Every structure is written in C-alpha cells, then in structure tokens.
Amino acid sequence: MDFELRRAREKLDNEQRERKERAKLKLDRERKAKEEAKKQRDAIEAAQRSRRLDAIEAQLKAEQQMGESLLAGRGVVFYKILEAVPFQGSGDKVKLPPSCFTELSDQGAFDKGPMYFQLSLVHQEGSSATKDDEKGNNRTTHSGVLEFTADEGSVAIPPHVWSNLFPVDAPNIPLVEVRYVRLSKGTYAKLQPDGIGFSDLPNHKAILETSLRQHATLSQDDVLTVKYGELTYKLRVLELKPSSSISVLETDIEVDIVNPGVESERTDQYVLKPLAFGASESGLVEEGNYMYYKFSIDDDAWEKLVSDDVKIEVKIDAEANGGDTDLYVSKHPLIFPNRHQHEWSSHDVGSKTLILSSKDRNLGTGTYSLAVYGFKGTTKYQVSVHVQENSKHKVGQQATHSSSMDVDTVECRNCKHFIPTRSIALHEAYCSRHNVVCPHAGCGIVLRIEEAKNHVHCDKCGQAFHLGEMEKHMKVFHEPLRCPCGVVLEKEDMVQHQASDCPLRLIACRFCGDMVQAGSSAMDVRDRLRGLSEHESICGSRTAPCDSCGRSVMLKDMDIHQIAVHQKN
Fold first, then answer.
1. Does a cis peptide bond (omega within 30 degrees of 0) precede residue 242?
2. Which CDD domains does its entry note (predicted)?
3. pLDDT digit of tens for each residue in the chain (569 aa)?
4. What element of type H or E holds 450?
C-alpha cells in the first residue's frame, strides 16, 4: 500500500514539474515574441523615419539644384543624365538628342547666345571612376553643342571631351550628367605642355590659337590637344581667369605657356637641340629614330654667303661600327624633316657631307632643322655646321700654258682620252691591260680592272654606285613609301608629293597667317580658280570691315571689293 502511494505521489510530482516547465517555456516564447515584435516595430519606424528624412533631403537637394541651375543658366533649367557615346570630331562640341533642342528652345536658351554645358561623370558602383574620384579626381568639364542629332538617351562626345571625362578607362555604360550653364568670357589662361618641344614650334601661340578656334570652352585641369602636322602636343590648363571655366568664343585671351616640369617631360617627344656654326655635337641614334638639331642664318651671315661666294657645309662623322645614318635638312616652318619631307638630304655610306650654296633658291635667312636618321643599327656620330670658303685654285694646282694645246694628240681607243701622238702606242698598250671602260650607256667612266667588279649601275634609275652602296640606294630611293594621306610612292616622288600635292602638308594661310594643313581642293569652283586650299576657302569666308567704307566683306573677296568699289589696286 505504501509502495502504491509513493508511486502515485512521484507521478503527481512529475506531472506538476512538467506543467511548470511547459508554462515556463510558454512564458519565454511569449517574451521573445514580444521582443521580436518590438524590434520589428522599431525597425519599421526607423525605416519610415529614414525615408521621410531622405525625402526631405532629396526635396531640399532638388530645390538647391534648381536654384543652382537657375543661377548658372540665368533662368534656363536644363539637367539630363545621358549615356556617353564617342564620335570622331574635333574641338569640344557635343551632340545632343532632338528632345533637348525642344526643351532648351521652350525656355528661350537660343536667345541668350552661345550655349555651354557642364559635363560631369555619374558615379557607378564598382566602376574604376568611383575609385578614382575617392582619391580626389573631379571628373567635370565643359563643352559647347555641335548639333541635336544624337540618339535619344545618349550624348555624342568628341575625343577631347572624352579623354578629360575618362582619362583612364570608361565604365561599361558611361553615364554623364549634362547641365546647361552660362560661362564668362575668358581673359587669361596659363598652359603647361607635358613635354619639351612645343616652344620650338614657329609661332606656337598662333598654332594654339588655330586649335582653340575649334573649341567653345576651357576648364581648369583639362588637357588640351594641339596638332601640328603629324605631331601632337598635350597642354594642361593650370589657371583660368575670371573663373575656373571660361568661354573662348569672341574674346581676346592672354595666354602664358610655362615650361614643363622635369617630372612630366616625355622622352618620346622630338626636341630641337641648338647647333652653332663651327661647333660639333656628339650623339647616338638608333635604327629608325631621329635626332634633331637647329641652326640659324642671320642677315650678316647671309650677306657673307652671297658676297664672298662661300658655302655652308653640314657634316656627319660616323663611327665605323656597323651602323649607318642619313642626313636631312629643312627650312622652317618644316621643323622636323624626315624621309618623306625635307629639302636637302645625303645618303652616303658612313660619314657624309652636305653642301648648301647661296645659289640655291631655297636657301636664305631663317632657321633650319637638321635630322640625323638611324638607317641601320645604333650609330655614334658627330654633327657640325661650318662655313666653307672657296678658293679659286686648289692647293698644288698649276696654271696651264696655252702652248700645251698645240701638242699633236690622238684619241685613245680604250679610254677615249686624248694622248700625245708620240706616246699613244705605249699608252694604249698599258691602258688596255690595266683599264676598262664602263659599258653602261651614258657612263663611259674609266676604271681600273680590279675596281670594275665593284662598279655597278641601278637597274631602275641607271645611277652609278660602288657595290657596297647599292643595297642602301635601293632601300632609300626605290623602296615604296606610304604617305599619311594614303599615297604610295618612291622617295623622289614622295618628296615632291609632300611638298606640293599632299593634302596633309603644312602651308601658311594667306588670311590668318597660321601654318595649317592644306587639305583637299576647295569646294567652291571660284576658290579653286584662285588657288585657295580647303582651309583658305573656309578661313577666307570670315568677314572683316573694309578699311575704306566699313562694310563687312569676306576676307577672300576683300581685294575684289577694293578694286570694284574703291578703284584701288
């Protein structure tokens, strides 16, 4: 009986204990559920509060941007985020979609003068642009507008603007913020080339002015690309006035060009080293490369050249180490002569000398460039320019007597020279054994028999050479050369082509005075009859007031206007 009571009591205790545990677990679950519900309510309230704050901040930012746009655009508000698409153009003018034309026109932007836009890179997560901007790189520049023909949702950007917005790599989908702004006319600009050599260009500020004619704006820290023939120079904008971004349209800007820093000098940039008369410069040139020098002929030196009948001797002494060079000389404005473009050249094997005479119509006062071209291998050389005085008699030369003409002579049947009759038999016997006449038509030179095997003629031009010089002659004069304009010619024809026919040759514009590419023939038939190049036809279409009547007349018609209206020659 006691055993059964004890079993019942234990069973009751276990049941009570289990009920207590279940009640405790239930209370814990309810407490945790209340805590979780409280956390969720707090999170919802925090999210709602954050959204309200973001909405207020976005509204304030939009109002601020609206105010800035109104201030920057002087009453015109235009703001778009567009996908950037590159196109091959010059200058800084972009192409916008037609919808932008409608929006700007509705706000009267076209009545406020030239339109300018601020272009800023839109940061995207994971893009290299975002990382660069975290380092402090501000991707903002300015531009004008070329036309409204871009695809909807995109902006077509020329290389100048593209390189300033994306100096490293563009993201997969480059987005650009385009904002209408008004810019002040510039008064001052400080530029720094990224390498030496730009200041050597003749009238380099005029070349810069010609390049800026294709631009509407300048922005501080932008890189401006200036082309001179086949050469390209990059100039960084260091300072602008009156603001960090300016308009360059219809304004006079004072430009300072500072020397490039040592850390930014480029080793691949052509440099003109000064070369004085009577002094020599040593150098080392590798195959396919050029080393450039310059020398000047002033008025005093030119008078001496003309009056004393002296000549200028340009000389290269090369070391015999298996290498070889070529020599090219040109007069400015052609400042970097090469295989295609030059006025004088020498292609002798080893050391070489080039004589410039005052009788040459291309020679005169001015600055000249000298190029040492590495034709083969790596060559050490010394280059010099001297004034060579002519003497009427060579050293050791004796005057001939008129009585010598009276001696009875006979023509040698081998060498065709006239020999005194008394010694003709002895001369012909010796001459036939030791000498041979070159059989090539038009040559007739008399050679020693052992030298005849090295005397050869070019199959193409017939010129006579030493056998060791033939390989270089064929490569220099008869190997086809490709002009940058696409024409393929041999050397002599190529030099003539680039001097008078090539559309990429540099000419002095008769209207602006700058050195520009000639371009193709003028579109206007009347301009072609006047001999105007493509650039001169466009440049001459600018108007200027007549000095006599003040009427605006195109520059290319000014001479006709002066004759027809004012009877002036």
1. yes
2. BRcat_RBR
3. 677 778 888 888 888 888 888 888 888 888 888 889 888 888 888 888 888 888 877 777 766 665 565 555 566 888 889 999 999 888 899 999 999 999 999 988 888 889 999 999 887 655 544 444 444 455 899 999 999 999 999 999 999 999 999 887 767 778 899 999 989 999 999 998 887 777 777 677 777 887 888 899 999 999 998 887 667 888 999 999 999 999 998 888 888 888 876 544 444 567 788 898 888 899 899 888 899 999 988 888 888 888 767 788 899 988 877 788 989 998 877 788 888 788 888 888 888 888 888 888 888 888 899 999 998 888 899 999 988 775 443 333 333 333 344 468 888 888 878 888 888 888 888 888 888 888 888 787 888 888 888 888 888 888 887 777 788 888 888 888 888 788 888 888 888 887 778 887 777 788 877 667 777 778 888 888 888 888 888 888 888 888 888 888 998 888 888 888 888 76
4. helix 449-452
C-alpha 506/C-alpha 491 separation (Å) is: 19
Round to whole Å and give the CA distance between 412 and 221. 81
Structure token digits, residue 375: 């034709």
* Residue pair 464/440 in contact by the 8 Å Cβ criterion: yes
With beta carbons less than 8 A apart as the criterion, state whether 140 and 219 touch: yes
C-alpha to C-alpha distance for 194 and 305, rounded to whole angstroms: 40
Burial of 45 from C-beta contacts in 10 A (0-12 / 13-18 / 19+): exposed
The pTM score is 0.58
DSSP string, 31-98: HHHHHHHHHHHHHHHHHHHHHHHHHHHHHHHHHHHHHHHHHHHTT---EEEEEEEE---STTEEE--H
Q: Are 154 and 86 in contact (CB under 8 A)?
A: no
Strands 231-241 and 223-228: antiparallel
Q: Are 371 and 338 in contact (CB under 8 A)?
A: yes
What is the rounded distance in angstroms from the CA atom of residue 429 to the CA atom of residue 419? 13
What span, in angstroms and rounded, lies between the C-alpha atoms of 40 and 21?
28
Residue with tokens 């997969």: 172
DSSP structure string for 357-406: ETTSTT--SEEEEEEEEEEES-EEEEEEEEEEPP-SS-TT--PPPGGGGG
Compute the chain's Rg from CA coordinates: 41
What H or E segment, with its residue span, contains residue 185? none
Amino acid in position 248? V
Name the strand (E) or helix (H) holding 281: strand 280-285
**Which token pair is 76?**
């015109």
Contact of 312 with 386, CB cutoff 8 Å: yes
Largest CA distance in the chain: 179
